[in-house]
Amino acid sequence: MDSISIGKLDIALLSNSCEKPRLFEKGEELFWDDEHISKGMLEAHLNSDWDAASRKHETIRKSCEWIIQKLGLKESSEILDLGCGPGLYCSIFSEKGYNVTGIDYSKRSIDYAQNYAKEKNLSIDYRYMNYLDMDFEEKFDLVMMIYYDFAVLPYEDRDKLLGKIKKALKPKGHFIFDVMTPKAKNKQSKNWSINTDGGFWKPNPYIELFESFEYEENVVLRQHTIIEENGKVSIYRLWDKHYATEELQKIMIKKGFRIKEVFSDFTGKEYTDDSESIAIIAENMEKER
């Protein structure tokens, strides 16, 4: 990104950096794999009492047990976890005897997951890669993408991923994922802070300018503009698409899936019109001959 000259604050540059960007315009690339940011994200994943990078660990265990019961998974089932982080779900499924593959684009998280699996003598195939580049064919009984990862994808990437997932699933295999509904949208806001000891985004002091923006079709952006002491400006953009059930039905049918059931979460909580999240169980429809 750009830099502000030392000793001179370029207001025009800073103003341009904080403007509302185009829909799904990218900010800093691969920030989840950044040496500093990934450290904070891993700590959040591993905090068992914090719904941050992952859900609380007790909720994760309940979700795994509910998924097994709901889908009637057999011990020989093949499971793929997209955006697996440090392997919290993968480890539980592996402990229960399932064949598990986990994909994540954070090397720090994958390294942790691999070390944990080795320590616990779990046979899990972890892969450090972009799940948009995966290329499996009729291998999995279940593909899962939990904690709203589906909602961050631009439409083109979303459709590409659905094609990859369909190809990876066995006939009648399941894809489960969750998203936020329009009920979860917050009002637009902006604020700023000075982080004299560094923080989540940078290890050294920085100023953070935050602003949220709303777009058509229930898309929300949380934009973090970070100004370091040396004048460097970094922009981190966190996109979220809030989906309605009717919209998901159309998308999934078009991509060859049938939505079987809808819940509020993966512990089986009932979905209502006031739910702020949707947990989807979709089935891979067989290709027409």
Please provide a written account of the structure:
By secondary structure, the protein is of the alpha/beta class. It folds into two domains: 11-27 and 186-241, no CATH class; 38-181 and 242-284, Rossmann fold, CATH 3.40.50.150. It is 27% helix and 29% strand. It has seven helices and eleven strands. The strands form two sheets. It has a seven-stranded mixed sheet with strand order 3-2-1-4-5-11-10, with helices on both faces. α5 links the parallel β2 and β3 (124-128). α3 (57-71) packs across α4. The radius of gyration is 20 Å and the shape is globular. The mean pLDDT is 94. GO terms for molecular function: transferase activity. Residues 79-173 form the Methyltransferase domain.
Named CATH architecture of the largest domain: 3-Layer(aba) Sandwich
Number of strands: 11
Q: Reading side by side through the largest sheet, how are the strands ordered?
A: 3-2-1-4-5-11-10
Silhouette:
globular
Radius of gyration: 20 Å
Major sheet description: 7 strands, mixed
Task: Looking at this protein, list some descriptive labels.
about 290 residues, alpha/beta, Rossmann fold, 2 domains, 7-stranded mixed β-sheet, 4-stranded antiparallel β-sheet, 7 helices, globular
Question: What is the topology?
Answer:
Blueprint: H1 11-17, H2 35-46, H3 57-71, E1 78-82, H4 88-95, E2 99-104, H5 107-119, E3 124-128, E4 140-145, H6 155-168, E5 169-180, E6 190-195, E7 206-215, E8 219-228, E9 233-241, H7 245-254, E10 257-263, E11 277-284
Parallel strand pairs: 1-2, 1-4, 2-3, 4-5
Antiparallel strand pairs: 5-11, 6-7, 7-8, 8-9, 10-11
